[in-house]
Amino acid sequence: MQNPNDIIDSEGRSIPKHIAIILDGNGRWAERRGLPRAMGHKQGCETLETIVADCARLGVQYLTVYGFSTENWKRSQEEVGALMKLFRFYMTKLIKVANEHNVRARMIGERSRFAPDIQEGICRLENETKDNTGMTFVFAVNYGSRDEIVRAIRKYTIEAIRSGKSEEEILALTEQDFSLYLDTAGMPDPDLVIRTSGEFRISNYLLWQSAYAEYYITPVLWPDFNKEELLKAIDNFNTRERRFGGRLKK
Ligand code: FPP
């Protein structure tokens, strides 16, 4: 259903303001080809580059992708090592892609666990794209919603103690106030969450922010995801009647 403020593309579809993606299926993509899992992640990075550009061209305002979860450290040392290597390489590549498409990049997640050079790379990616005025590309790395919420509670509590907040002031905290302590502070909530590879799970992704998002699950593995699949997801989103807990409009 379209709203007056929606961005409408040349084919009449309403473009979601914020799309979030759980990119899944890299490992299976590689295994089906008899390749090491790392090759699936490499191909996944290539797909990510093209989808960032496609979303920017379509007029999406925020694209948030799940690159590495707080739980992904449990994978084999070899796989985590391969992902970190790719992360280093693609962060530099992403600066170029982002600048070509007027995209501002921002990271969410707890970055102190990454090696110092990766943390520097993250700062560089953010700094070198910060003046771009088009889409915001949000990369969730070492991200987990529960971790994010706990970190937000810690931040709020420390601030409350330091500033000597009264019980009355604490009880006045609203959902909107609290959201400013999350990594996604200042961003609109996702309208559409896409998950590739046919799994019906949220996997600790944007739990707070996706309270009223529309979900779209595709069996396509992330390395095979492309603009055509993205448009299918957006077309499906266009068929949804969003009620945000209210009643269906007659
Ligand atoms: C899911 O596939 C994907 C990941 C665990 C992360 C891969 C992310 C990227 C390639 C984007 C770039 C991000 C970084 C950090 C380089 P899977 O391995 O869970 O697939 P499977 O379910 O088929 O095993």
Quickly describe the structure.
The protein has helices at 26-31, 37-58, 77-100, 116-127, 145-162, 167-171, 175-179, 227-238; strands at residues 7-8, 14-15, 18-22, 62-69, 104-108, 136-143, 192-195, 214-217. It is an alpha/beta fold.
What does this structure look like?
- Strand 1 (7-8) and strand 2 form a beta hairpin.
- The model has no long low-confidence stretch (mean pLDDT 96).
- The protein has helices spanning 26-31, 37-58, 77-100, 116-127, 145-162, 167-171, 175-179, 227-238; strands spanning 7-8, 14-15, 18-22, 62-69, 104-108, 136-143, 192-195, 214-217.
- The two termini are 13 Å apart.
- The longest helix is centred in the middle third of the chain and has 24 residues, at 77-100.
- The protein is α/β, with parallel strands linked by helices and 250 residues long.
- Helix 2 runs parallel beside helix 3 (77-100) and helix 3 (77-100) runs parallel beside helix 4 (116-127).
- The chain has a 6-stranded parallel β-sheet, with helices on both faces.
- Farnesyl diphosphate binds at residues 23-28, 41, 44-45, 48, 67-68, 72, 83, 86-87, 90, 141, 197.
SSE arrangement:
Blueprint: E1 7-8, E2 14-15, E3 18-22, H1 26-31, H2 37-58, E4 62-69, H3 77-100, E5 104-108, H4 116-127, E6 136-143, H5 145-162, H6 167-171, H7 175-179, E7 192-195, E8 214-217, H8 227-238
